[in-house]
Design brief:
3 domains; 24% strand; D-Amino Acid Oxidase, Chain A, domain 2; alpha+beta
Length: 514
């Protein structure tokens, strides 16, 4: 796969291929700016693939009194559901009440949540009796249960949305390169005018020129800021949130549970997702930020013990099918040291030499973040004045009736292309694993159309098997590797290295040694 560029002159160079970076590429390219994005690993391989899979206003921020952030996020939630209905959908949550005051207290708060959403509300919150709560959540712990409050929020598959965004950016004219690293920034008269980039697989270096460079690297933002000025003070504080994945028989049905306040000050979610139950999240401050952070033992124990408090069946480590850790890129301001209290609002910084950094933020607000940073960047270097066009821009695969595609619904209109692949060869209909509806054709499609070049790309992000079931993904890894070898013209040595690398990554998704 070619991962270099012939053109070396660009209007906008974006560093970082997560939600913020790719969102910025969509915004820039749709305004008509010549846009290049580079990502040192795979698209979304950091924080953007490891979220709680929710597009939401943030009940936690409502508790903190941050109404402006909640209002902004609720607006963006509605825009995303409108522009990507094949990936973003409504999900009903229930807050179980175990004390007499919880019903009115949380009920009033969630009515305010509805009010802030206004006409963009996904549905009205309602009070539930004890019997109604049990009917919706048959495995809920019933001792001392008083009732519940039901409310609506958004759910999505984070990296399937990211792939849709990637394809959208390309449709708009952007060029996106994964496995391409920023080596250095170049300057003329102390003003940034370009960069040296390197393809990590071919080791080919290129020097490119850009009118403006945008740092959208999330938790790695400080390292890019220091390539510009080695003496800058760190502004990002990383907070790890882990999630455990269980079989859905722990909480059958299509409703989620939200616990508004745990002992570490976070909201706890138990959410149905792709036929599993996803439980998260924690809040643990980190000092360094690996691409695959490993959950701490106390974090795992925290989620298991809190889940056991609210479900009849108590999960154990043996029940964990997969476990993943994401690092929130919190932008510091003031003297707040507790990561659970740091705002998720985004900030834009322009250095003396012209590096534009977009800092903080959250998945739900990526489009607004992209719009804001492009407004600043385009003004800084006097690009043609063009308003953002993303509020009404349909994302790749858009369809109002994704259900017509069955198990391929999350691909939207691309599902028809995968169905065409079934006709190419009978083996393309085969499943990667007998327990999961992921086919060989989906792997072929990921390689040919979605820039997947490693086993991890396919099993972690183009499909979500590693996130759903580590053991199943390991069993499927050799077949995926063989398909990559054939499609990309690789050799046996490459395949062996890939299998070793994937097994190493898979270990970071387990609660105990493989």
């Amino acid at each position: 796969m070619k991962n270099t560029v012939e053109n070396t002159f660009w209007d906008v160079l974006i560093i970082g291929g997560g939600a913020t970076g790719i969102g910025t590429a969509i915004d820039a390219a749709s305004r008509g700016y010549k846009t290049l994005l580079v990502e040192q690993f795979d698209f979304g391989s950091g924080t953007s693939s490891k979220s709680t899979k929710l597009i939401h206003g943030g009940v936690r921020y409502l508790q903190q009194g941050n109404l402006s952030l909640v209002t902004e996020a609720l607006k963006e939630r509605a825009i995303l559901k409108k522009n990507a209905p094949h990936i973003v959908h409504d999900l009903e949550f229930i807050v179980p009440n175990y004390d007499w005051w919880e019903g009115p207290f949380y009920g009033i708060g969630l009515k305010l949540y509805d009010l802030l959403a206004r006409k963009e509300s996904f549905g009205d919150s309602i009070f539930l009796s004890k019997e109604e709560t049990i009917a919706h959540l048959p495995t809920i712990e019933q001792k001392d249960l008083q009732g519940g409050v039901l409310y609506h929020d958004g759910q999505f598959d984070d990296t399937r949305l990211l792939v849709s965004m990637m394809r959208t950016a390309e449709k708009q004219g952007a060029t996106l390169l994964n496995y391409t690293q920023l080596i250095a920034l170049t300057k003329t008269n102390n003003t940034i005018d370009g960069a040296i980039i390197e393809n990590k697989q071919s080791q080919i270096k290129q020097t490119i020129k850009a009118k403006v460079i945008i740092n959208a690297t999330g938790v790695f933002s400080d390292s890019i800021r220091k390539k510009d000025n080695s003496s800058v003070t760190n502004i990002i504080k990383g907070s790890q949130g882990i999630h455990i994945v269980l079989d859905q028989d722990f909480l059958p049905g299509d409703k989620a549970i939200m616990i508004p306040h745990t002992k570490d000050g976070r909201v706890l979610f138990a959410v149905p997702w792709h036929g599993k139950l996803l439980v998260g999240t924690t809040d643990t401050e980190l000092k360094n930020y690996p691409i695959h952070p490993i959950p701490f033992e106390e974090e795992i124990d925290f989620l298991l013990s809190h889940t056991a408090q609210y479900l009849v069946k108590d999960p154990t480590r043996k029940d964990i099918k997969s476990i993943f850790s994401g690092i929130r890129p919190l932008a510091l301001s003031g003297n707040t040291s507790n990561t659970s209290e740091i705002s998720r609002e985004h900030k834009i910084e322009v250095s003396d030499s012209g590096l534009v950094s977009i800092l903080g933020g959250k998945w739900t607000t990526y489009r607004k973040m992209a719009k804001d940073v492009m407004n600043v960047a385009s003004t800084l270097v006097s690009l043609p004045r063009v308003k953002s066009k993303t509020q009404n821009l349909k994302l790749h695969g858009y369809t109002k009736t994704p259900e017509q595609f069955g198990t391929l619904s999350i691909y939207g209109t691309d599902a028809a292309l995968i169905e065409e692949l079934y006709k190419e060869h009978s083996s393309f209909k085969e499943k990667l694993h007998p327990q999961y509806d992921i086919t060989v054709a989906q792997v072929i499609f990921a390689i040919r159309f979605e820039k997947a070049v490693t086993i991890e790309d396919v099993l972690a992000r183009r499909t979500r098997l590693l996130f759903l079931d580590v053991a199943a993904s390991l069993k499927a890894s050799k077949l995926v590797g063989q398909l990559l070898v054939k499609e990309l013209n690789k050799d046996q040595e490459w395949l062996n290295q890939q299998l070793i690398a994937f097994e190493k990554t898979a270990k970071t998704f387990t609660a105990s040694p493989l």
